Amino acid sequence: MPEPSAIRHPPSAIVCVRNVRKAFGSLVVLDGISLDFERGKTTVVLGPSGTGKSVLLKHIVGLLRPDAGEVWFDGQRVDNEDEHDLVPVRRRIGFLFQMGALFDSMTVGENVAFPLAELGDLTLDQQRDKAEVLLKQVGLPDIQHKMPAELSGGQRKRVALARAVALEPDLVLYDEPTTGLDPIRADVINELIVALRDHTGVTGIVVTHDMQSANKVGDRMVLLHSGKVLCDADPEAFHESANPRVQRFIQGQADAEDLAAIREGFAAAPSGEPI
Ligand SMILES: Nc1ncnc2c1ncn2[C@@H]1O[C@H](COP(=O)(O)OP(=O)(O)O)[C@@H](O)[C@H]1O
Ligand SMILES: [Mg+2]
Hints:
This protein is α/β, with parallel strands linked by helices. It is built from eleven helices and ten strands. It has one domain (about 40-65, about 85-265): P-loop containing nucleotide triphosphate hydrolases (Rossmann fold, 3-Layer(aba) Sandwich), CATH 3.40.50.300. Adenosine-5'-diphosphate binds near residues 29 and 53. Magnesium ion binds near residues 53, 54, 98 and 176.
């Protein structure tokens, strides 16, 4: 008999999420989510704001613990691992946080070198050299000595990305990497996500509600709705999905219930009255 874990963990998946449930008080955010994230691929997790996309990412790095279910990283169960044992796991995962937070009191170079300094394997010169290479890769040479406050939003995201990949992770988690950027700057980030996958073979999980970004970077599309996986498919099948909710999301249309509620609201108000 094979081990149960062997059945549950296809070797092609670097992250396996199994029946994960997470509630905050009475709010059930993840209601039994199961997903396999394939190595070397970029999976896009889509869903409207507040559907639990960031909460899902935080479970993968052990920043949140599920109420039920399991999370595995490269064959190791991580949801019940203690903080100490999570350190080597987290070292293999780059996390581009939603706000792309940089340390404002450090230079750009120090920000990028921060994970290298923490690791303690490299001299200061080596850290600086590596930071320079990383900044070049994200298209920002010669800005090591600038302070984060001097950068645009798009540049900050790119610096945060350079920092997220400093330790050459096996997996990069991107939380809303293009949110708040204009379409041109967003496209630069999309290009970087694709280039990183193509050049290093890194696995990516991109959380977004930006369909254009999803189309550009996604090898696979997952749509979350009401705490469940509504659709999990390759981009072609996703776009051809017969599920009306999927189609509405793709086309950026409001839910039928929301539309009905708005119509009722207008119908109830005397016409010509301000609402
Ligand atoms: N630590 C927390 N404590 C309480 N509620 C939380 C916490 N983290 C997230 N939530 C709630 O869970 C829901 C999903 O959040 P989130 O994953 O951030 O959504 P999104 O899909 O926009 O990333 C939201 O209603 C949010 O308010
Ligand atoms: Mg979020």
